[in-house]
Design a protein that fits this description.
The chain is mainly alpha-helical. It has one domain. It is about 90% helix and about 0% strand. Helix 1 runs antiparallel to helix 2 and helix 1 packs antiparallel against helix 3. The longest helix has about 60 residues. The mean pLDDT is about 80.
């Protein structure tokens, strides 16, 4: 019932801010899209070149050790080395997922301020109704 009395004051506020929310969301998405494209391209290039370099170095290590009694040790050592790297990077990726930058942070801040304004409007309305009785 309190919400019904406050509705005439809330509707203009909501209507006025609706376009602001759309503008903020559009701005943030535009910035994110450009950055994500650059990051994906850089990451893909880095991963591909690192993979090729590591593959060539592993082939070189096995080729050097091939005619020696240490070839199995070299192959096993490389396998253990890459297993350790996979475990370490998996742990970093798991922890990094928790710290991802929040998308729509400005929009969320604006929405919080508007919710507070709505609470104040409702509280004012309740105070005015109590004063009348």
């Amino acid at each position: 019932m309190n919400l019904l009395y406050a509705l005439p004051r809330m509707v203009p506020l909501l209507a006025r801010h609706a376009l602001g929310y759309v503008d903020l969301a559009t701005e943030e998405l535009d910035g994110i899209a450009a950055r994500m494209r650059r990051r994906v391209l850089a990451a893909a290039t880095c991963i591909l070149t690192a993979f090729l370099a590591v593959t060539m170095l592993c082939g070189l290590a096995v080729a050097i050790a091939w005619d020696t009694p240490y070839r199995y040790i070299v192959i096993a050592g490389l396998a253990l080395f890459f297993l350790a790297i996979a475990i370490a990077t998996g742990d970093v990726a798991r922890r990094e997922r928790r710290h991802i930058a929040q998308v729509f942070e400005r929009l969320r801040d604006e929405w919080t301020r508007d919710r507070e304004a709505l609470r104040e409007i409702i509280a004012e309305r309740n105070d005015t109704r109590e004063d009348r009785t």
